[in-house]
Amino acid sequence: MMLSEMQQDALTEFFNICVGQAAGMLSEIVNRKIKLSIPVIDLLSADDITASYFDSCIGDSSGHVMSSSLQFGQEYNGKAFLLFPVDQAKLLVNICLNEISDNAIIYDQQELLDTDFDVIKEIGNIILNSVVGGLGNLLVTKLTYSLPEVEMLFVSTEKQADLLQNNIYAFMMKTMFSIENTQFSGTILIIFGMDSVTRLIAKIDDMLEESDAFTS
């Protein structure tokens, strides 16, 4: 299953609105101007998400990423992840807390504190709720979702297979955070089953047809 150019443009515009709303909420919380770049979106099957592709999205993480995730369900089921390389997550936390940090420092798992996990959990809660809630609005259905869980993952090839087990398609959205003059890379991963993806794309097609009818 592949997205047409028009479908990809429509989804990019939709998710850009969602992350823009999340950036606005984050800016108010940390009292700093936070921007999120227009996400680059791919719809991929589990087989398409190779180790090299995953690395290209996450960055130079040496396999370690900080993950905030939540399950969503009812009419559509899936799981959404916000993923950061560990050093990027630590830098983001430090700036949000107005703590001095050094971009060149590489942090390991032992240096992450409970406070770091709490901040990433809150950031994940805002961004993932905005994206998943937006999906519910797009699909005209109410999605229930769990509280986010934060954990450190070692994303080996085997772990990628675990993440995608029993699921077939995933939206990968790579976006860049910027706070003042500092940028951070992060990836939003939404895992759907085939039925949910098919219905989501059908909804996009309906919207495109309605748009054509309105403009013609």
Provide structural commentary.
The structure is a single chain. The protein is an alpha+beta fold and about 220 residues long. A hairpin with a 4-residue loop joins strand 3 (about 65-75) and strand 4. The radius of gyration is 17 Å and the shape is globular. The longest helix is centred in the first third of the chain and has 26 residues, at about 5-30. The mean pLDDT is about 80. It is built from six helices and eight strands. Helix 1 packs across helix 4. Strands 1, 2, 3, 4, 5, 6, 7 and 8 form an eight-stranded antiparallel sheet that branches.
Keywords:
216 residues; alpha+beta; 8-stranded antiparallel β-sheet; 6 helices; globular
Order of helices and strands: HEEHEEHHEEHEEH
Q: How much strand content do the residues show?
A: 25-35%
As a whole number of angstroms, the C-alpha radius of gyration is: 17 Å
Count the strands? 8
* Helix-strand makeup class: alpha+beta
**Given the C-alpha coordinates, what overall shape results?**
globular
Give the averaged pLDDT, no decimals. 79
- Can you summarize the main beta sheet? 8 strands, antiparallel
Tell me the number of helical segments per DSSP (H or I, 4 or more residues long): 6
The low-confidence parts are: none
Estimate percent helicity.
Answer: 40-55%
C-alpha end-to-end distance? 29 Å
